[in-house]
Write a structure and sequence with these properties.
Shape of chain A: globular
Structural class of chain B: mainly alpha
Number of helices of chain B: 20
Strand content of chain A: under 5%
Oligomer: heterodimer
Number of domains of chain A: 2
Strand order of the largest sheet of chain A: 1-2
Shape of chain B: globular
Number of domains of chain B: 1
Order of helices and strands of chain B: HHEEHHHHHHHHHHHHHHHHHH
Radius of gyration of chain B: 21 Å
Largest sheet of chain A: 2 strands, antiparallel
Largest interface: A-B, 30 and 31 residues
Helix content of chain A: over 70%
Largest sheet of chain B: 2 strands, antiparallel
Chain lengths: 494, 482
């Protein structure tokens, strides 16, 4: 293996890194950085997507450090697209003074996502996690004028570094027990060993880091503050790309690496392994996320707690295991990410115009801006799982797979819990809808606004609205034609 | 061709949003009329086989999971589509002068109608559930934006009850799908589910649908929802939406899980009879005219469930007839109470109405309400009688005790209907007012809508064979009767 081959196989990542540096340069030198940086970023990402498409279908470097497979390529593209979609949201944040730096950080975060998705080796996964994490900490704290942003960054950083420490510790234990860091080899080793306590500790510790990334209860405490305080594009990025990549990797680790110690999460028939651990995380997330979301008065906090619950639903697919379960999880999390970016984009637009993102700021939105209200209702109803939107199909796929898994419908308890949770969630998703369509508009500049409304240039507004429209159309499209995405995911799974 | 009812109505909903405001009601009327004409044409076209649930359209939708876009038709669904069309037309006519956010109003209204057509025609569980849930959100907005008394509470309560039912249904559908290996209703109705599965999946699925049909004790959304809704909203609720639950309970829950149905049948009968008597007794004590009618809806829907519980062809056919009949009568009663009276007098309190001498002020309203009350009480010659007597004949064979208790309920029903009729129109408190108050006269659209509904109840009452001939073969073809 010479360096040229390596460079060829790592071309997408390289392109994104170069783009990030180029964006940084443009941002420092050009006076109209806010216009040119996004353009450079889009061109670079398009090149990276092209590079991904040119990759061979299968390759494996250094025992899994860089693996190229249909699944990995597909999700590299998904992550890049998700990262790109957050860039138009920047225009809603006037306080972001250095668009060049900001976009460069998003692109570096995207590299982290691509490394995470593209690796099947514990050390490389850890490096990807850290690269992603470091970019996200800075992105969360980027708004220097807002103390909440600093709080968000600090909280995210403290929790994140603790979780990383746990993960690293877990990885070291797993390495000690199996003698290798490659997922495929770990899987082979574990088939012959029994589940010793030390290994169990290693597995649980490793999972903690991912539970943090996907904001599963009880490791979710950073999420509400980060979602609420961080600049909106950062929140959207944390909630979308980072989550998708984490689910891809989590799925690979437990299904490939820890596959032999699956255990069982069946009711009354639990067997030690990673699946009961994830089942407990899922159950806690569903209950806690949904119940606490009921009490929120800020839409971003509400989305954060609902994200905890959605993380819980998404885990169901991994617990169910197998090709079906994994593809259901991947479909759900991708669609969820698209929906959430859309929701955050609307929140950004409303915040710009009404000066805040409390629920009150949304009252009468249908009269002020029918377009935003219609799109927001598409996003929220999709999150609530109503047909014919993408979230409904995602839930159907996820829950039916979980119901099928295990002997004698053992996961029925989780399915019932998840259905109960989504029933509760309907209430808190209806509240913003009611605010938008039923209530009369609140006075502009009332006491709910924390900052002055911002007027945007025509181009920026057009780009922001076009993005929102595109995302809403995507949510509708994936609801009506789910096979376009689901078939691709299913066929890419080995 | 009948599938076009769905497409036309959805298209109509979009067109309403695009066209200027003054055309909104005309567009809605044209859309609902078109739906009705299509269904009536199919109804009187003898070449259509209505005895079996025959496929009309079947297109693969998501082959990997076995989801098809699959529509089918038999006599039961056709009768329900017919009543949907009738109720929809009259609902549009009775909201002719909606001023505030008219485009939105007709948009939501047409969505409810379109989703209902979809439910009645779906032959795929996924599709059926999709349409079923699609009805709920528009209903929320219809009530919460355009309603009256305590509208946000009523709308939210109704929506949450519906979603609760929806969650149960979702679970039941997943259970049927995973065990039966298909989502196709026609295939599944030939599949033998494991008895253990049926024993728990049937009540989950049945109860989920029955929430929408107003089964006691999960009926409490119905009176508050009806009262809060705008007139057209109550008409659609009583005329169509409650029927969705009853229809789906029969088509999905009972037909897929016959063994579970046999186990739980006595309990359904108990809940149905309690519902009939309890709701009638409660209606007797109401002061608000719309609450009286709201509870009467629950009582009437109890008959539908009782008919299901008989588990014989006569009783079940009677149920379907009752679904049609109550769809028409309920819509008519709400039209009088909500539109003809409330819009003019701004009160629905029976005591207040008693002082207004409405008999002279609004003679047409009085006439309509007399007809509607007679039909609702089960006077021979109207559809209510035909339906309820059929159900009771069916029940006599298998549940004689239930018939006796229901008899009490029917007396109560007559009592509260007569009380409401008397207080609202024919009371002697008139002496306290010197002359009839000046009220705006009944408009032409109102007269047309009321006439359509009165004609429907009378036609079916005088000649129930018209519907029964189409219902009964379809009911007999269902598996649980064999």
């Amino acid at each position: 293996m010479n360096y040229l081959d390596l460079l060829k196989l790592a071309a997408p990542e390289t392109v994104v890194v170069v783009t990030a540096l180029a964006v940084l340069t443009v941002g420092l030198t050009n006076a109209r950085a806010s216009l040119f940086c996004p353009i450079v970023a889009i061109i670079g990402s398009a090149l990276a997507v092209a590079a991904i498409l040119k990759l061979p279908t299968h390759a494996n470097l250094f025992g899994g450090m860089l693996v190229i497979s249909p699944l990995n390529s597909l999700f590299k593209i998904v992550c890049l697209v998700l990262a790109l979609l957050t860039i138009p949201l920047i225009s809603s944040e006037k306080s972001l003074r250095n668009p060049g730096e900001y976009i460069a950080l998003i692109l570096l975060g995207a590299v982290g996502l691509m490394l995470l998705v593209g690796s099947e080796e514990l050390l490389m996964i850890f490096i990807g996690l850290e690269l992603l994490g470091l970019s996200l900490y800075v992105l969360a704290a980027f708004d220097k004028t807002d103390i909440r942003s600093a709080e968000a960054g600090l909280k995210y950083f403290l929790f994140g570094s603790t979780a990383s420490a746990f993960t690293l510790f877990g990885i070291s234990l797993v390495y000690g027990m199996s003698g290798t860091t490659s997922l495929a080899l770990i899987g082979q080793k574990l088939t012959t060993t029994t589940l010793q306590p030390l290994l169990a500790v290693g597995i649980v510790m490793t999972l903690v880091g991912f539970a943090f990334k996907i904001a599963a209860a009880p490791f979710h405490l950073w999420a509400p503050d980060a979602y609420q305080g961080a600049p909106i594009p950062s929140s959207a990025f944390i909630a979308s790309g980072s989550k998708v990549a984490s689910f891809v990797v989590l799925g690979k680790i437990v299904l490939v690496g820890f596959g032999p110690v699956h255990g069982s999460a069946d009711w009354h028939a639990m067997i030690a392994g990673w699946s009961p651990v994830l089942a407990v995380l899922a159950a806690l997330s569903i209950l806690l996320g949904n119940f606490v979301a009921l009490a929120q008065t800020n839409l971003r906090r509400l989305l954060a707690y609902s994200a905890v619950a959605h993380g819980g639903y998404t885990l169901l697919g991994i617990i169910a295991g197998g090709r079906d379960g994994f593809s259901a999880t991947l479909f759900y999390t991708s669609v969820y990410a698209v929906t959430l970016i859309g929701a955050f984009a609307v929140v950004g637009a409303v915040r710009r115009e009404a000066g805040g993102d409390d629920l009150q700021n949304f009252s009468g939105l249908a009269a002020r801006s029918p377009f935003l209200a219609a799109c927001m209702s598409i996003f929220l109803l999709s999150l609530a799982g109503l047909p014919p939107l993408a979230g409904f199909f995602g839930k159907f796929y996820l829950f039916s797979t979980a119901f099928r898994a295990g002997g004698n419908h053992g996961l029925l308890w989780l399915v019932v819990l998840a259905l109960f949770g989504s029933f509760i969630s309907l209430y808190y998703y209806l509240i913003p809808l009611k605010m938008m369509f039923v209530d009369s508009p609140s006075e502009p500049g009332s006491r709910h606004s924390s900052q002055m409304p911002v007027r945007l240039g025509l181009t920026h507004r057009f780009v922001a609205n076009a993005t929102i429209a595109l995302l809403a159309a995507a949510v509708l499209f994936f609801g009506v034609m789910p096979q376009t995405l689901a078939d691709r995911i299913i066929s890419s799974l080995p | 061709m009948i599938a076009w009812t769905i497409y036309i109505t959805f298209a109509g909903a979009i067109v309403v949003l695009i066209l200027p405001r003054f055309l909104a009601s005309w567009t809605a009327l044209a859309t609902t009329l078109a739906g009705f004409v299509i269904s009536a044409a199919t109804f009187f076209c003898n070449s259509v086989d209505l005895a079996h649930f025959n496929t009309i359209v079947r297109v693969p939708w998501f082959p990997a999971l076995g989801i098809n876009y699959h529509l089918a038709l038999d006599g039961i669904s056709l009768v329900l589509i017919l009543v949907t069309g009738i109720a929809a037309i009259s609902a549009v006519l009775f909201s002719w002068d909606v001023e505030d956010r008219a485009k939105e109003f007709f948009f939501w209204l047409l969505l409810v109608v379109a989703g209902s057509y979809g439910v009645f025609l779906s032959a795929d569980l996924f599709l059926l559930f999709l349409f079923y849930e699609l009805v709920i959100v528009p209903k929320y907005f219809l009530i919460a934006i355009f309603g009256s008394t305590n509208k946000e509470y009523g709308a939210m309560k109704l929506t949450l009850y519906s979603f609760f039912g929806g969650a149960l249904v979702f679970l039941g559908i997943i259970a049927a799908y995973v065990s039966g290996g298909s989502l196709d209703l026609i295939e599944l109705s030939k599949f033998q589910f494991l008895p253990q599965l049926q024993a728990w999946a049937f009540p989950v699925l049945f109860l989920g649908f029955a929430v929408l049909a107003g089964i006691w004790p999960l009926h409490t959304w119905a009176p508050t929802g009806h009262v809060a809704a705008p007139t057209a909203g109550s008409m659609l609720l009583a005329g169509i939406v409650m029927k969705l639950g009853a229809y789906a309970a029969l088509r999905v829950a009972i037909n897929l899980f016959p063994f579970g149905f046999q186990i739980w049948r006595p309990w359904i009968a108990v809940l149905a009879v309690v519902g009939i008597v309890y709701a009638a007794a409660v209606a007797l004590r109401q002061r608000d005219l719309k609450f009286v009618i709201g509870y009467s809806s629950v009582s009437h829907m109890g008959f539908v469930l009782l008919g299901f519980a008989t588990a014989n062809a006569i009783g079940v056919s009677g149920s379907v007839l009752q679904i049609f009949s109550h769809g028409v009568i309920g819509a008519l009663l709400f039209a009088v109470a909500g539109r003809m009276i409330y819009r003019r007098t701004h009160t629905r309190e029976l005591d207040a109405l008693a002082t207004m001498d409405l008999r002279h002020a609004l003679p047409f309203a009085a006439f309509t309400f007399v007809i509607a009350s007679a039909a609702s009480m089960g006077i021979p010659g109207f559809s209510g009688f035909a339906a309820e007597i059929t159900i009771l004949i069916g029940a006599w064979k298998s549940l004689p005790l239930a018939v006796w208790i229901t008899g009490v309920g029917m007396v109560l029903m007559a009592a509260f209907t007569l009380r409401a009729l008397k207080r609202a129109f024919f009371d002697v408190d008139v002496a306290s007012t010197t002359s009839a108050p000046e009220l705006p006269p009944i408009t032409i659209p109102e007269k047309l809508g009321a006439s359509l509904l009165m004609f429907a109840t009378l036609a079916v009452g005088l000649y129930p064979k018209l519907l029964l001939d189409r219902i009964q073969p379809a009911v007999q073809a269902m598996r649980f009767l064999k």
